[in-house]
Amino acid sequence: MSTNSKQRVDPRITRTKKLFKEAMISLLQENDDKSKVTVQKLANRAELNRATFYLHYQDIEDLMEQMVNEVLEELSGKINPVFGDHENTGTLPIVSFLEHIYDHAVLFQVMLENKDFRRKLFNILVEIISIRREIKKGSGTSVKVPIEIVASSTFGIVTWWIQSGTPYSPIYLADQINLLYRKNINAQGNTVKKG
Amino acid sequence: MSTNSKQRVDPRITRTKKLFKEAMISLLQENDDKSKVTVQKLANRAELNRATFYLHYQDIEDLMEQMVNEVLEELSGKINPVFGDHENTGTLPIVSFLEHIYDHAVLFQVMLENKDFRRKLFNILVEIISIRREIKKGSGTSVKVPIEIVASSTFGIVTWWIQSGTPYSPIYLADQINLLYRKNINAQGNTVKKG
DNA sequence: TTATTAATTGATACTGTGTCAATAAAGTAT
DNA sequence: ATACTTTATTGACACAGTATCAATTAATAA
């Protein structure tokens, strides 16, 4: 590689960006007064100067975009390695997906306000489902419903689950989703009901 | 009644409110430059004075709230009368629901940006589904999946359908939704496949 | 220690908010 | 048609937030 992948970054930058991101999450949680997030408020909450914000971000959209990408890259990182070996570990990608969200429930709840986040989360789900369908294709199970229907309905369930404060366990939710699509096995791989 | 339900309203008010609502929809459609809607822009688009806006609305939130309620009251009006006689007409509430959205696709597409609108649309779906379940309860069909799962997955599908520009017909979509929940009849009431 | 880089400060021009009093225009009623 | 009432416009106001400076202070890296 021509560039060092771990260029040392000034710790002040790391600190400042982290503080602004935490401030953003903190402000987004205050849905009570429909708190419009402003650079002023972010700077106050982060206990940094307003001008400092502009040293790192173009505007609030820019900060939000970076946060969205970081959150979803971490999620994808948890899913993708599993694609190859989920037959070994017995953990379905959808379960890894739900477990990661479950472990970062507050973060995902506030991020769901962002349209771009929702779009990208949907795309990750489409990926998970299409890979699953690819595997199932050879196994004789006929696919009846268009993938957009399956993906969007799953997305609806997951969105509801996050917004409701993740009331079910990831395993239970995965089972319910599978039940919905007549996959009569539970998330652990055990047969629930004969077809 | 003590009050006349049709108090005559100054035509200038009707006209002004209509112009502001149209201006709002017009601005919301311009997602290209992430157009933040401002009172300034609304007044320009409506070809009215900025101060006039404040004669009718507290702020932009207030305008949006009124629009959301009007749109969804009209939708509810199309659904509710059907509850009683859908066995006569053969039209399921979910089909009336989808048909109304289909006929006002652009309006619903822009309104979906609003969180309150999404919440209320979801609640209408919950109502439709719970009434349907009430009917099915006596017919021996066992209900396997929690209603929140059914409602949120349906909401996901409908949301996707609206955002994608309503690519399927209401009847086809209703069929797909029913297929998903193992209701083996199509929206016209014909048997599609034996259980 | 000494460059170097980041953060703060105070200033700036700009856009948008929400409200007002005064005036013009449109609708209602006789 | 006239007088009365309500709505809309205009220009002004104080205020809050944006995005960008140049100059200064503080922290980091060599």
TrEMBL record, chains A, B:
Span-the-membrane segments of this chain are: none
Please give the DNA-binding region boundaries: 38-57
Give the matching InterPro entries.
Homeodomain-like_sf (IPR009057), HTH-type_Tx_Regulator (IPR050624), HTH_TetR (IPR001647), TetR_C_Firmicutes (IPR039532)
* SUPFAM superfamilies the record matches: Homeodomain-like
What are the protein's UniProt keywords? DNA-binding, Repressor
The keyword tRNA-binding is annotated on this UniProt entry: no
Domain HTH tetR-type stretches: 14-75
Name of a matching Pfam family: TetR_C_8
The protein here is known as TetR/AcrR family transcriptional regulator
Question: Species name for this entry?
Answer: Mesobacillus maritimus
